[in-house]
Amino acid sequence: MFRFKVCVILLAAFYLPPSEAIKCKDEILINAPTESDRFCVFRDVTWRKGVAEPVFEQPIGPRVAFVDSNLTSIPDSFFAQAPRVETLVANNVHLKQLTIKNGMQQVYAEGNSIEQLIVDGGKSLKELYLSKNPNFKNLESLSPLVGLEKLDLSDTGIESSPETIDFGAFEKMPNLTVLRLANDQLHYVENANRVTLPNLKVLDLQGNPIIPANFEMSIFRDMPKLEELDMHNTLMSELSVSPNIRDDLPALKKINIGGMHLPCRFMRALLDELKLKEIEVVGASATASTKCNIGFQAMDGLCCSNDGWAPPPPPTTLTTTQKPEDGPTPPVLTTTKAPQPGPDTPKPKKDSETGGEGGGSSTVVIVSVIVAIILLIGVGVFVAIYLKRRNEATHKRVPGQESNDNL
C-alpha cells in the first residue's frame, strides 16, 4: 500500500498534461505583403527549444502568420501539421533559427535575431525577406535557394569577407530580380570573378560607407538588365564612371545618388550626362529648395561638396541667326564666352586706366566740382576774418585822446 501511494505521488509530480491545441484565426493581416490576402494567424505563441513543442490544430491554410509571439524557431510540430504552407510571415517574433521547407514560396522574417538558416528543400522559394537581422552573416546558407527572385538582406551582418560583398555569392540565383543590401556596413563592393546576374533589375546599396578607391561603376556591366540603382548615403567623394554611362549601365532607368560627397564640378557633369541619357535621378529637381550642411551646396535638389565651384553665369548675349536660303529666323538665346587671353591678346584695360566712356569721366567732374567749392569757401572765410580784424584796428582809441579833446 505504501509503495502504491509513492507511485501515485511520483506520477502526479512528473505528469505533464497534454498541451492545449493552438488554433489560428482567419483574418486579413495588417501590413501583409498583399492587403487582400487572408492569413491563418497564430497569436501569442511562446516556445523555446528544450521545452515540449506546442500542438497546432488543423486546418492550417497556405498563408500563415505568427503575431505577438516569442519563438526561438518555428517548431517542427507546426510543419508536421502545415505541409501546404506557401507564405510564412514571422516578423519581430525573436527568431534565432529559420527553417525553409519545400513548397514555401514567400518567407518574411524581418526584425528578428536570426543566426542560422536551415534549408530543407527550398527550391520553390521565390521571395525571402531577412532585413533587420543583425546577427545573420552566413551567405553560403543561401546557395540552395536557386529559385529566388527577391532577396532582402538589408541591416544584416552579411559579408563575403570582412566589410566586403562579392556578387559571386549570388551566382546560383539566375532568376534574381531584386537584391537589397542596404545599411550592411559594407566598405567594398566587388565582382572578382565577373559573375553575371542576368535578370537583376533592382539593386539597393544605400547607407553603406563604400570606399571609392576600389569601386568602379563598371562593376555593373555584368548586370545587363539593371534598371534601378540606389546608392543613397554611400558617402563616396569620388566615382569612376565611363565617358558614356551606358557602357556601364545599359538598361538603367533610375538612380539615387543623394547623400554622396561628390564634388560639385563632378556632380554637375554627372547630372548632365544622366539627363542626356534619359536616366531619372531620384530627388533631383532644378526648382527644388534644398538645405545642405556646412561645406556643401545645393545643386538641382541635391547636395554636393563645395570645392570652390560656382554655377556659371546666366546667358547674356542675344544673337540672331539667319539662313540666306530660308529667310529670317527668330532670335536664339545663346551664351557668348569671353576670349581666353593668349600671348598676343592684349589685356582689357579697366575704367580707371582708360578714363572709361561714362562712369569714369563723370566721377572726375564731380570730384573737381567738390574741390573747387571747398576752395571757394576757404577763401571766403579767410577774407572775412581779415576784413574784420582790420576794421577793429581802425576804430581802436589811442591813449590820452580823451584828455586832449577836453582841452
TrEMBL record:
Protein name: AGAP005744-PA-like protein
Highest taxon listed in the record's lineage: Eukaryota
Record flagged with keyword Ion transport: no
Matches recorded under SUPFAM superfamilies: L domain-like
UniProt keywords, alphabetically: Leucine-rich repeat, Membrane, Repeat, Signal, Transmembrane, Transmembrane helix
Transmembrane segments annotated in the record for this chain: 364-387
Spans annotated as Disordered: 307-360
Signal sequence range: 1-21
Provenance organism: Anopheles sinensis
Keyword NAD assigned: no
